[in-house]
Amino acid sequence: MLTLLIFRLLWGFVGSSTARFSSFVRGPRAIGAYLRGSWSGVGHSPLGALSVIALFGATAVQVALGLVTEDEDGIYAGPLSRLVSTDTSDAAREIHELWFNVLLGLIILHVAAILIHRVRGKSLIGPMVTGKAAVDPTVRPMKPGKWWVALICLAIGIGITRWIIAGAPPFGS
């Protein structure tokens, strides 16, 4: 999960035009316009962007908590649990267990929104997978990301994850 989070974070800065945070994270006015039905664009709607940010943030919290937890029996310990006190690790474990419900709720809400759009005649899954959708001709089309940039982002994500799993040793050690 950590690798995927790192990949998505990087892809949010260098990926396709619709994947970039700068293109879909909008303010309250855009959300209001969307709710009034006066928003048009390609990619995430302003409300969909909130969902993406909430899911990303909640998943990041869950992963971070898991990195520092240790189970009650001491059989499993996150790779960074040695960096925190036992009390902190115990607290992180408790929050980690409860936070799963928050994450599950956000996932259910996200899937429900996709299904509601589908029932209303707008498929979101196809365009999400293929990057192709019928759009208003006055709206600027999406610019796809480059495959080699995605590979670099993935390699960075894998590298950072492996470093953390190794206990995040100092560089040069």
Task: From the structure above, extract its key features.
single chain; 173 residues; mainly alpha; 7 helices; 0% strand
Shape estimate: globular
Average residue-wise pLDDT: 90
**Quaternary class:** single chain
Count of runs of 4 or more consecutive helical residues: 7
The structure class reads mainly alpha
**Structurally, how many domains make up the residues?**
1
Strand content: under 5%
Total DSSP E strands = 0
Subcellular location: Cell membrane
Membrane topology: Multi-pass membrane protein
Domain Cytochrome b561 bacterial/Ni-hydrogenase: 2-131
Keywords: Cell membrane, Membrane, Transmembrane, Transmembrane helix
What does this structure look like?
- The chain has 173 residues and is mainly α.
- It has one domain.
- It contains seven helices and no strands.
- The two termini are 26 Å apart.
